[in-house]
Design a protein that fits this description.
This protein is of the alpha/beta class and 275 residues long. The chain is built from 13 helices and 9 strands.
Length: 275
């Protein structure tokens, strides 16, 4: 089983020469994110049967490969899995207004967790926060860091750049925020949204197939990258805590769809020839 395209060209060729019957190439991206050169390699590995099976990390991502994998009989989707989150009994409960259930008057806290590259569209989140009372924390690093810092300064947005946060420390970030903003335009299967929801965050996301595959209707979707549309969504989520809680609760119900044992079972069935 090979998980990177260029390594697969060598590893799977060697496996075929060694007489290995099932040679599986696993792709953790959509075709636009992978790019044309690597997609050509994927198609060639399938057509020549160097790879007996091509597995893509989600159904929406697989659909983007159809022009490339149409001639590959054994191309299928096996969604990636999310570990079942542990509950934190010592986590403080959020503070609500005792009269109408609204959160106390502090501004809504928005989180972005992604690599700082063009297709993640972190600029949309920054522009959406600018001019509002919301604050934004950006967890991640990448080549656009200084450009995004400048954007935050010029727009007057309240943005904290936290840098790259180790995965074991992300739970603390989730617990300190109310909403995850996910404006990305290219993904494979973005399970970060479920991770955020498991900690009680509502999700506002770009209206794209890979996001709907993960969250279904359990997110506030924004069509396009107009910051005013995103700001209106954030304002709506900030206005009523019950909306945020309902979205997060609905999203948590979808975690079982991406259960680790289910993913392992489907790979095992594939390898022994039943998948």
């Amino acid at each position: 089983m090979a998980h990177t395209v260029l390594a697969a060209a060598l590893a799977l060729t060697a496996a075929r020469a060694a007489g290995v019957d099932r040679r599986v190439l696993v792709i953790h991206a959509s075709q636009p994110l992978l790019g044309a050169p690597k997609s050509i390699v994927v198609a060639l590995l399938g057509v020549t049967r160097v790879a007996t099976d091509v597995v893509v990390c989600g159904h929406a991502a697989l659909a983007t490969f159809q022009p490339w994998l149409r001639v590959v009989a054994r191309a299928k989707a096996i969604p990636n899995a999310i570990p079942v989150p542990q509950t934190h009994a010592d986590e403080p409960e959020p503070t609500f207004d005792s009269i109408d259930g609204m959160r106390s008057s502090r501004p809504v806290r928005v989180l972005v967790a992604s690599r700082l590259v063009r297709e993640k569209r972190v600029d949309v989140a920054i522009r959406a926060v600018a001019g509002s009372t919301a604050s934004l924390t950006v967890c991640g690093d990448g080549p656009l860091l200084e450009e995004l810092r400048t954007l935050a300064e010029t727009t007057g947005a309240d943005v904290t750049f936290a840098g790259r946060v180790p995965s074991e420390e992300m739970a603390g970030q989730y617990r300190n925020h109310d909403v995850l903003a996910f404006p990305s335009e290219r993904e494979g299967l973005p399970l970060v949204m479920l991770e955020a929801a498991s900690h009680g965050l509502a999700v506002i996301a770009s209206d794209r197939p890979f996001n709907r595959e993960v969250l279904g209707d359990a997110a506030w979707y924004c069509d396009g990258d107009d910051p005013m549309v995103w700001r209106a969504g954030l304002d709506a989520l900030a206005a009523d805590d019950s909306v945020r809680r309902d979205l997060a609760a609905s999203a948590r119900e979808r975690i079982d769809l991406f259960d680790l044992s289910t993913m392992v079972r489907r790979y095992a069935e594939l390898i022994v020839g039943r998948g």
